[in-house]
Amino acid sequence: MALLIDGGRIPPRWAEKKGLPSVSNGRYDSGTEGVRIALVNNMPDAALEETEMQFMELLDAASGDIPVRLKLYSLPRIPRGDRGEEHLGSFYSSIGDLWNARFDAVIVTGTEPRQPDLREEPYWSAMADVLDWAERNTVSAVLSCLAAHAGVLHSDGIRRHPLNDKHFGVFESARVCDHELTRHATRTMRFPHSRWNEVREDSLTSCGYAVLTKSAQAGVDLFVKRKKKSLFVHFQGHPEYGARTLLKEYRRDIKRFLRQERETYPTMPHGYFDAAAAKLLTEFRETALAHPREDQLVFFPEAIAVEALQNTWQSSAIYVYRNWLQYVLSRKAETSRFAAATASYAQVQRKRSAVS
Predict the structure, then answer these.
(1) How many domains is the chain partitioned into structurally?
(2) Which residues are catalytic?
(3) Least crowded by CB within 10 Å, which of 210, 263, 268, 317?
(4) What is the model's pTM?
(5) Which regions of 99-218 does DSSP assign to beta strands (E)?
(6) What is the 8-class DSSP label of residue 21?
(7) pLDDT computed for residue 46 by the predictor
């Protein structure tokens, strides 16, 4: 079942990939309503379009025969350039539209943090509003990376902790709790991580969160908690990442080092490159450290590194998101049946009152 983009115009990269017209007709081809999802994409301009593509591709692959309609939003007060503002203006709806719209679920991405305390970020108030709205108005909410940290801070006052080095790469996670979201998944799964901070297991479990997957190297990965009407699903990692995403981030961080925008040379992503690519990248690192100039990037062995890259986490990501979509659809159906039964009972009671 094809993923449908709501809101009028379809982002050009997705339209081109799927052979779609640039304007959506706003209607399903199927008679069933399916699942309506709001994607609140808060990534900075450099990753804005790439992130929307990653979530569209993952939802499209995971949906199976479930119709999924997606509408795009972004938080205000995130620093944007002209290109980012133009893209948002063309393909995204105002966050104010969210409050009166009807959605079954929401996905909220993170963004690059600028403050040690997330509550000091300029977009914090809007983020808190989205989280509060999701508790009352969705069946489930997915919070990705920094958004997961914001969610537990807002709801339970759980602070994130800085790491000595970036958790960066593809890590094996063990399935440590049976749950609908991990049903039929393998006992061990792989997910990418890219973060300088973490929330810790003891803080989460003491506040009622259930940890579903965790890694010996990267810590807690996937955890959940019901908040009012909604099941909140938190990822410290990035199952939506494409095969080349970590390579792009690695090259970006190397560029920042060569431009003296960061003090240390970035750590190579864990569990990502094969031995041949890792050897070349280690040799490049030695040259870059000896001659730290931006023009060294012309010798970065990107083409060779790309050849061996594989999306080794895709099957795990599809399993979890397919289970999530099925969860949302089943809970939505239960709510509809309950509402119908309640309305029928009320109607019977009114008739009895009228007769008496």
Answers:
(1) 2
(2) 145, 238, 240
(3) 263
(4) 0.91
(5) 105-108, 140-144, 161-175, 188-198, 210-215
(6) -
(7) 94
